[in-house]
């Protein structure tokens, strides 16, 4: 393979912060707000042109699962107030544009600095401690230093560049959950429309059961029906595109995912016209500009949360996330619908579980916290804690932990979970 030696160059350190948050999805927003509310000087770095990640740019339909996080419930309340101003009612469905404004308001209130269109491309290391990040954007290449960096990139890009240990996907074979491009349709007859909200929701129609028809008629690996009401009458959000064999840490795979998902949108509309009551005249009005990647890197932390911890609703003494609840949402790793290991409607554990602080602390790297779906957990546990409310709770814990560490001058791994719990 031919190579090119890039000339060395001196980088300007454009800022020194208490806390740098890489990524502005639900976990990143909560981390930045929590740290900011403790008086930290915070910088948020976002590769896309808007904040919110999958919850906004990814056009997520609604908040699912639950978490005992103050910031999550505040986001829900503020979102409901903005939705109420628009259509006269409070809803849990997401209006991406209104939710972006909620996030911008919250960042502004804590005086966080924000850089959009900015890609974290390197880390500044001092031994095994992260001291900052290197970025690329339209202004060029630059460095920013911080006392704590919180990795909210989803894929754990900062942690991977720091040398933190991880594995990808399922432990047995490395396969990862499929990717999806969300999109919205208009022209739906809401009085007659059906809204199957899970793979295990069966809908009988005059032409047959809808999920079975989708598996037969849609191009593989698409083949399921997930339809969700939006905040706007007549408009429905679809979670029906599907691409398997994708590694979300590889640009080539992300590009293929975009192309495959877009190629499925036309056949999906044709299918809805033919088989789904109320969708006879529906049409595409918008699609997400961020592909929905469910699973990539799982990092090795001081502690690891497991499937059994969730099934037994384990209450860790050193918890920093509480009342977390969802199902085992394992999308089929090789095709459509629910994986044989997954459980949605048939998930019987109704009690909330906790997540210990050690899951956010990389085993061998200092100055860095894991946040969102990249924390230390097994493949099966990840299928539960990866949902947005729980990611908000993780981010809230990280932001508070970072502030405590900065104020006390201690390493992140030396912070006692009880100190973080006081802010939760």
Description:
By secondary structure, the protein is of the alpha/beta class. The protein folds into 2 domains: 13-171 and 297-305 and 355-421, FAD/NAD(P)-binding domain (3-Layer(bba) Sandwich), CATH 3.50.50; 183-287. The protein has helices spanning 26-37, 70-87, 96-109, 157-162, 210-217, 251-275, 307-311, 379-385, 388-408, 417-421, and strands spanning 13-22, 42-45, 113-115, 119-126, 129-137, 140-151, 166-168, 183-186, 204-205, 208-209, 227-229, 236-238, 283-287, 297-299, 319-324, 353-356, 368-370. Strand 5 and strand 6 form a beta hairpin. It is globular, with a radius of gyration of 21 Å. The mean pLDDT is 96.
Outline of the structure:
The chain is α/β, with parallel strands linked by helices. It contains 10 helices and 17 strands. The strands form 5 sheets. Strands 1, 2, 3, 4, 5, 6 and 17 form a 7-stranded mixed sheet that branches.
List the helices and strands and how they pair.
Layout: E1 13-22, H1 26-37, E2 42-45, H2 70-87, H3 96-109, E3 113-115, E4 119-126, E5 129-137, E6 140-151, H4 157-162, E7 166-168, E8 183-186, E9 204-205, E10 208-209, H5 210-217, E11 227-229, E12 236-238, H6 251-275, E13 283-287, E14 297-299, H7 307-311, E15 319-324, E16 353-356, E17 368-370, H8 379-385, H9 388-408, H10 417-421
Helix pairs in contact: 1-3, 1-9, 2-3
